[in-house]
Design brief:
seven-stranded antiparallel β-sheet; globular; homodimer; about 475 residues; alpha+beta
């Protein structure tokens, strides 16, 4: 790559577009803009950062960068977990966090037009106020909707409601040469050519910069009930998962947890709400389910049936959380799992592979046993209902180099196993920079080559978010 | 395009792959292979047709055609409506209709592995036997699942269940150079690079040849009820549509029809089942709804509520069809609409634009008034719930050239209006050959150029289904 560095002349051009105060240079750049939430993948400050406010600004910035071969990395809130927003090659960071306005509602068609920097939690809350719901529910509510679209974020309600990609109706995208494109339409069906909207979705900012989105919503279900089932052993809990669907239950979410992660998380949030023992026996694992519906009359029969069902399948007990406070207590603990893991460990690395739901137990057994070879500790939890796990290697005692050296073969073994099981490399976090080599290995040369060629169609100078998804960078030297 | 013609040597190579009996040449080629169900877009026989049986055969055929610059058009059952399967440039037609085996069921994960030539009606019936359901429900049940995926077929249940693209989990695709690629995985989530599965879906056979599919299924709802509401006037019926969703009803399907189409269709199937008058007043329009659920207890409250609701909104009556026979009678008539229109007219052309559901009434008014300028007659019906209309110009009296000449400006006016309303050019039929120029005009040069470049990534020699989607052919000369 023959990227150029920013010159005073180029900076002056950028200042002409957005004003001198928003073109932040060198040491002045917010250090957060050098990284996402996985610092182990490396950090790098851009030469310049710009908090953009409009599509037109982004277009003008891209025209300048395109003319001058300046790499550009787009970031939202920087809550990614794969180094996707790290400006590996310096250049310009375009931050969309201040493009945080909800533009308009199309209540008749259950859709919202929004800028990309709106936080997931704000979009969800604003929808609720309108009697609507934005169903995708990634654990990280402080990410932006633009980031969610760019990674096809999944979350906890995917089993009933799908993932982010299922809610993208149309988008405005600034191309690397500055051209503004409108893709898709706010209607429910299309067979109008190649699905470019779905190509940009999940492309991690490598094909264009999303500056506006139209997202589908649904009518807000009138109520939601959570069901918590403690188990004596994780395998029993996991074996129950596919049976729940076979028995025609339609949960909105179906999560599994192990005791150690729960204890860590409760300590982190300072609450003691989840049951830890039943009749003197320690709880080792949990299933947590949500059911939603338009009335208690609609949900109640399911609740009675699921209670009996879970007890028959070996649950030690079944707790129904049907008041806002009870639900909030349980989910506050769930919501804090990742932060709890991050906060309590100096070193961590993770993956988010997906395996068929009836193979989760086998997969957990595989990577747990494999981890015994190494010095790091293991933490994991998962979206049991869709087979998407979050598996962490963590340590407070190892040296970073040694940690990385040990983590690598463990990751490789897990990816190999996931592939053998017919799964996916990443369910919702993306490839970013941290998984480029694993992705290469997982999908093989031909698919990588297709990625590279598609990238060049959109971005012939490879300026947007370089060193990500299918492109190695100089940093991409994993321990061998 | 510098396509070559087949030589005896090339034919001999093809015969080596599949045997001499399956390489059908010249006059021997089934005349059906020259066309789809819209003969007005033209017909052309290929030089050779091959009914393929395996992925490996398709791969070997493509290697030969790639080496020799022979264009290849893939077809399934040929039920398309946009000339998508017409081998404009001759060459080879690869027909997947005999690849009609369901390969295996993954009942634990609600998925089916299938060859592309399985008919939609057979896939649906086989799923039902397993207690499962393949939800997409295009009216044409004799199309293949490969064709459904290639056009992202929509159908009647899109409002509740989405379109074909929402059910594609993974696929095996033969690339133009003969390489066999596996895309996607049979799991519910992925953020693993660009969504190539979604790019092939709806690409109308221009990027690769689908030879195997894994499609998502759902648990079959225990029962399904149809609700038929006659109206005195179409506008009243159409104005009711968005209100149904606002009032929190979740119908599985929501269709609208006008009296003339209904009469034509009943005549065609030889049945008299839909109500034609209420209290001495002629019915002019209908809304037809489906509700499904797991028990009568679950559906009944909705039925009572929708009955009251529709009567309040101006329905002349509300009929509930809750027995298999009643449901079959109603839907047999609905299912025959297109065939009835085809059978009773010598000339027909159509579009399937999508507009926002609350603009359907305005759109119908627009194109109906516009049609008064012309000599052809008008027939239309629509998926009211998702804004996807099927609008036919038909004639038994006009000359074909004059018909085409008059249809063209009417189509242009409709597409312009749909675009102005924020709709899509085609909701479920695709662009094919019949709509290339309209598509160019609708999306503009930049998006067409993106299509062309993406096409070249997959198919550098432009061999697959040439003259379709974003590529004009010599035939693409619409009357001016």
């Amino acid at each position: 790559m023959n990227y150029k560095q920013l010159t005073p002349e180029i900076i002056a051009q950028l200042e002409k577009v957005v004003g001198a105060d928003r073109v932040v240079k060198g040491e002045g750049v917010n250090p957060d803009y050098s990284r996402d939430e996985m610092p182990i993948y490396g950090q790098n400050l851009p030469e310049v950062s710009i908090d953009v406010l409009t599509t037109e600004e982004v277009s003008e910035i891209m025209k300048i960068c395109y003319a001058n071969d300046i790499p550009v990395t787009t970031r939202g809130a920087g809550t990614g977990l794969v180094g996707g927003a790290v400006p590996i090659y310096g250049g310009v960071v375009v931050c969309t966090a201040r493009m945080n306005k909800i533009l308009s509602w199309d209540e008749k068609q259950f859709a919202v037009y929004t800028q990309p920097g709106v936080l997931l939690q704000d979009l969800k809350a604003a929808a609720i106020e309108k009697g609507l719901m934005y169903p995708p529910d990634p654990g990280q509510k402080l990410g932006t909707i633009g980031g969610n679209v760019s990674t096809n974020a999944g979350g906890m309600r995917a089993i009933k409601y799908g993932t982010t990609k299922d809610y993208v109706r149309s988008m405005t995208v600034v191309m690397p040469n500055g051209e503004i494109m409108k893709l898709g339409a706010n209607v429910a069906k299309t067979s109008s050519g190649y699905n470019l909207c779905q190509l940009i979705t999940g492309a991690e900012g490598t094909l264009g910069i999303i500056t506006e989105l139209c997202m589908k919503l649904i009518k807000k279900p009138a109520l939601e009930i959570s069901v918590l089932a403690p188990f004596k052993e994780l395998p029993t809990a996991l074996e129950t998962v596919p049976k729940i669907f076979q028995a025609s239950f339609r949960p909105t979410a179906l999560e599994f947890f192990e005791r150690p992660v729960l204890l860590l998380s409760e300590k982190f949030v300072g609450k003691d709400v989840w049951v830890k023992e039943v009749d003197g026996v320690d709880v080792q694992a949990y299933l947590l389910l949500i059911f939603d519906g338009d009335s208690m009359d609609e949900i109640e029969p399911h609740l009675e049936r699921i209670t009996d069902f879970l007890l028959e399948e070996g649950a030690m007990d079944v707790m129904i959380a049907d008041t806002p406070n009870k639900i909030k207590d349980i989910w506050d603990v769930r919501g804090a799992f990742l932060d709890a893991i991050f906060e309590s460990h100096e070193l961590f690395d993770e993956n988010d592979v997906v395996v068929p739901i009836y193979k989760i137990a086998e997969f957990v057994d595989f990577f747990s046993k494999d981890a015994e070879k190494y010095d790091f500790e293991l933490m994991y939890l998962g979206h049991a209902g869709d087979g998407n796990l979050h598996i962490f290697g963590v340590s407070n005692t190892m040296e970073e180099e040694e940690f990385k050296k040990q983590i690598h073969p463990w990751m490789v073994a897990m990816y190999d196993k996931a592939k053998e099981m017919g799964g996916e490399l990443t369910g919702e976090h993306g490839v970013g920079f941290g998984k480029v080599e694993y992705f290469e290995e997982y999908v093989g040369d031909s698919i990588i080559e297709l990625h590279k060629q598609i990238k060049k169609v959109f971005d012939p100078k490879l300026l947007l978010n370089p060193g990500k998804v299918a492109f190695r960078s100089e940093w991409s030297k994993l321990p061998s």
